[in-house]
Specification:
This protein is an alpha/beta fold. The protein has six helices and eleven strands. It is globular and about 55 Å long.
Length: about 190
């Protein structure tokens, strides 16, 4: 399936251009998003929890990647929730994305069992414990962060549950005077298990 948005054709492969999403500036960027989805491994009919969904980019790409894949975006901020819903309306098959507003630690217990969990915002040990307890037996989890606090959380999660830790550093070529130089994006720490 290919979804036509404003004349652009996008397929199922992860890595939609960042410009495909409305955002307030906080967005899991294309290269980092593709890495998360490689670890999450969307499969037909599976359910993803996207904790701290923001613009909804991970959930949207999940829903596009496999037939019948569904996602629940969890977002505490109403302004970001409305942006995620608008993005999903444009970029996902109908009825594959659902949004739940509220703090993750208060709403996760009410959700159906996920096959995979992505935590991109609102991460805490309480949220990770709830996610790990809820995951299906062959479930996958990925946590991303750019803060020291989230890095410490990812290290603690890896020590407790195993999995892989990675730091992802992406640089883009940008004009530098009359030449071109590399401009680094924020480094992302990634904990992935499953």
């Amino acid at each position: 399936m290919i979804i036509d948005r404003d004349g652009a054709l996008y397929g199922r492969v992860a890595g939609l251009p960042d410009e495909a999403f409305e955002t307030d500036g906080l967005l899991t960027k294309r290269v980092v998003r593709a890495s998360a989805l490689a670890h999450l491994r969307p499969r037909p009919g599976e359910l993803l929890w996207d904790v701290g969904t923001g613009a909804g980019s991970i959930a949207i790409e999940w829903c596009r990647a496999a037939e019948g894949a569904r996602a629940i975006g969890i977002e505490r901020r109403a302004d970001r929730a409305s942006v995620a819903l608008a993005n999903a309306a444009r970029l996902t098959p109908e009825e594959t994305f659902r949004l739940v507003e509220g703090p993750a630690d208060e709403v996760l217990a009410q959700l159906p069992t996920p096959d995979a969990v992505f935590v991109g915002g609102g991460g805490s040990m309480t949220v990770l414990e709830q996610a790990m307890a809820a995951l299906a037996p062959d479930g996958r989890i990925v946590v991303h962060g750019i803060t020291i606090e989230t890095e410490l959380l990812c290290v603690a999660a890896q020590q407790r549950w195993g999995g892989e830790l990675a730091r992802i550093q992406v640089e883009h070529a940008q004009p530098l005077g009359s030449m071109t130089g590399w401009t680094p994006a924020r480094t992302v720490i990634q904990w992935a298990k499953g």
